[in-house]
Write a structure and sequence with these properties.
Layout (H helix, E strand, L loop, with lengths): L7 H7 L5 H18 L6 H5 L9 H20 L11 H6 L9 H20 L6 E4 L3 E4 H27 L6
Antiparallel strand pairs: 1-2
Helix pairs in contact: 1-2, 2-7, 4-6, 4-7
InterPro entries: DinB/YfiT-like, MST-like
Pfam families: MST
Organism: Verrucosispora sioxanthis
Length: 173
């Protein structure tokens, strides 16, 4: 069962004087919610349709960001047995690739579940907590949160364009 969360748009806009952690968490949740809103009301076929020269699709963006969430929070911050942090461009490109059973419903549910896990993992660490990173040396939880805000927001921008090309919808639908 997916937990009921307050509207992330309202939380982000009302966190204007909150502490640093609350601001970072609320903006990451805002962008996570915007990504999922871009999938509302479209079919599996529309979500998987290639509308730009690259292999980027609405469904592929959600699948990719699910991998990104898992990679940074679970695999890097709190790895379990068998968790491997993905570092190659090949891994990143493959994370956009859709399988036949990748429906809007399944991809959305997987993304929401991974975001919930990410919140749980991140909440266990202070912003100044540092972990080794295979390419960057060390990264703090603060840096990871800012990076995930940037990465998610960038891909939500892509989703904005793809959704507009799909049916003309724009903004925070």
């Amino acid at each position: 069962m997916v937990e009921s969360r307050p509207d992330p748009v309202a939380v982000a806009m009302m966190s204007t004087t909150a502490d640093e952690r609350a601001v970072l968490d609320s903006f990451l949740d805002f962008h996570r919610a915007m990504l999922l809103r871009k999938l509302r009301g479209i079919s599996d076929v529309e979500a998987a349709r290639r509308l730009v020269p690259s292999a980027t699709t609405l469904a592929g963006l959600v699948k990719h960001l699910t991998v990104v969430e898992r990679n940074w929070f679970q695999c890097l911050l709190a790895p379990g047995p068998g968790d491997v942090y993905l570092t190659s461009e090949e891994d990143a490109t493959a994370s956009f690739t859709l399988a036949e059973d990748d429906t809007v419903e399944r991809l959305s549910a997987a993304y929401e579940a991974e975001c919930a896990r990410s919140r749980e993992v991140a909440a266990r660490f202070d912003l100044d907590h540092v972990v080794p990173h295979p390419q960057l040396g060390e990264v703090s939880v603060r840096w990871i949160l800012v990076h995930l805000i940037e990465e998610t927001a960038r891909h939500v921008g892509h989703a904005d364009i793809l959704r507009e090309l799909t049916d003309g919808s724009t903004g925070a639908i």
